[in-house]
Design a protein that fits this description.
- This protein is α/β, with parallel strands linked by helices.
- It has 2 domains: 174 residues, Aspartate Aminotransferase, domain 1; 252 residues, Type I PLP-dependent aspartate aminotransferase-like (Major domain) (Aspartate Aminotransferase, domain 2, 3-Layer(aba) Sandwich).
- The chain has 16 helices and 14 strands.
- The chain has a 5-stranded mixed β-sheet, sandwiched between helices. A 3-stranded antiparallel β-sheet has the order 9-12-11. Strands 1-10 form a two-stranded parallel ribbon.
- Helix 5 links the parallel strand 3 and strand 4.
- Helix 1 packs antiparallel against helix 14, helix 2 packs antiparallel against helix 11 and helix 14 crosses helix 16.
- The longest helix has 20 residues.
- The radius of gyration is 21 Å and the shape is globular.
- The two termini are 41 Å apart.
């Protein structure tokens, strides 16, 4: 989609939330107080919040109406059964365990399936997913194609699995040491990049031959389906709902953060096809989340999720959702700003390594760039580079990923095209003074998922 294409959001605005405008002096003060970590900013000091698309979407009038029908019974809430039906009808999985959000589901499946020393291949890591795998005693192995680590590659499906890498792992470690292959749709850390249906079918064929499960990280599966529809031969005339179902039918279970695709502010689930795994998950969820018919959620939240799942596969919705991201990306490409290409589904990823080539990776160029965007215009973005990658649990050394990115994540149904223009203009201003920007050093580092709470200061 060109930045000059005309399209309109498939909704009208019924309520507004006023945004707070701040001065550069105020922003310099509060970002310093936050340790130059955008996660530690107060939301009231943020003008346009692009930190994440997780739980930040605007719900529809139908979802809000559904919340008024919340059945807050401790056991057997009717909203659970509505959610169960929505998951079965849309995704096809047999069994459902609700969780408070996606990482609750990651915790359950990791605890159940992973033994100490196991290997978990995946199409690039995600922060919480890998941590749960490691805490369970497993080791993540990246099997994504090499193009995914190249921000300039125009490969249309950079979320694809390198089948040779996967087969090599199976041959080296043995199928018994691989409890499952983790397949993300789309791949967040690669820039919101999709996996093709053809590649997923080949992964399914290979894993079936060796008796290995596929566990689907389906957080943005509808967005992945949109890219398949637009880019992969044979899918142009298929609906988003049908493509989503085809993706899910090639997997054995799924973890879901419903705070993305399913358009809710909180919620997730573990969906499974194996009764034995489901039975154990149903028992464990009572220990860690809540009863198996609410899993840490209010009935009203489950109802909003059941409705949001159906809305997420609407063609008009997904076209406008991804179209807004593409509009922003095209504006930046036309201005000569280095970003990850092709443009992803849920955000535009700035290539901090190319924008700030004079700042070495151990001085956190992406973290630095995110702080500068906030100072410029009150835009809160997110680092996806060496800080997010963390430390190797064996050596204790920093991991240095090839991609050093700043994610401009677009919430669903929240901002207008005018906001996209404001964002683009701010990025251009920061880019034009890039040579004057200096790196940072980390002065506080938490043990786990350090990007949430680490603190920095300029060098």
């Amino acid at each position: 989609m060109s930045s000059r294409s005309s399209w309109a959001e498939p909704y009208k605005i019924k309520m507004v939330e006023l945004l707070k405008m701040t001065t550069p002096q105020r922003r310099k003060k509060v970002i310093k107080e936050a340790g130059f970590n955008t996660f530690l900013l107060k939301s009231e000091d943020v003008y346009i919040d692009l930190l994440t698309d997780s739980g930040t979407s605007a719900m529809s009038d139908v979802q809000w109406a559904g919340m008024m029908r919340g059945d807050e019974a401790y056991a057997g809430s009717r909203n659970y059964y509505n959610l169960e039906k929505s998951v079965k009808d849309t995704y096809g999985y047999k069994y459902l365990v609700p969780t408070h959000q996606g990482r609750g589901a990651e915790h359950l499946i990791s605890s159940i399936l992973i033994k100490k020393g196991d290997i978990i291949p995946g199409n690039m890591y995600f922060t919480t997913t890998r941590l749960h795998q490691e805490l369970a005693g497993g080791q993540f192995r990246d099997i994504i194609i090499d193009e995914a680590h190249d921000a300039e590659s125009l490969h249309p499906f950079k979320g694809n699995v390198d089948l040779a890498k996967l087969e090599s792992l199976i041959n080296h470690h043995g199928a018994a040491k691989i409890p499952y292959v983790c397949i993300a749709t789309t791949v967040n850390m690669a820039g919101g990049q999709p996996i093709s249906m053809d590649n997923l079918r080949q992964v399914r064929e290979l894993t079936s031959k060796h008796g290995i499960r596929i566990i689907h990280d389906m957080t943005r599966v509808a967005e992945n389906a949109y890219f398949i529809q637009q880019r992969e031969p044979g899918f142009k005339r298929k609906s988003i709902a049908r493509i989503v179902r085809e993706i899910c039918d090639l997997t054995d279970g799924a973890t879901m953060s419903a705070k993305k695709d399913a358009l809710v502010n909180i919620g997730g689930f573990l969906a499974l096809n194996e009764w034995e795994v489901f039975e154990e998950a149903r028992n464990l969820v009572v220990v860690y989340e809540g009863l198996h018919t609410y899993g840490g959620l209010a009935g009203r939240d489950m109802e909003a999720m059941a409705i949001g799942i159906k809305e997420s596969v609407d063609q008009n919705h997904i076209h406008a959702r991804v179209g807004q991201v593409e509009y922003l990306g095209q504006r930046l490409i036309e201005a000569g700003i280095p970003i990850v290409q092709p443009i992803g589904s849920h955000g535009v990823f700035l290539d901090a390594r190319r924008i700030l080539p004079h700042i070495p990776q151990d001085q956190f160029p992406a973290q630095t760039l995110a702080a500068q965007l906030y100072i410029d215009a009150g835009i809160r973005a997110m680092e996806r580079g060496v800080v997010s990658a963390g430390r190797d649990p064996i050596t204790g050394e920093n991991r240095f990923p090839k991609l050093e990115l700043v994610r401009l994540t677009i919430p669903r149904r929240v901002y207008t095209q005018a906001h996209m223009d404001v964002i683009a203009e701010s990025v251009m201003r920061v880019y034009n003074r890039r040579s004057k920007i200096k790196g940072m050093q980390m002065v506080y580092e938490p043990t786990y998922l350090r990007f949430f709470q680490a603190r920095f200061e300029p060098i």
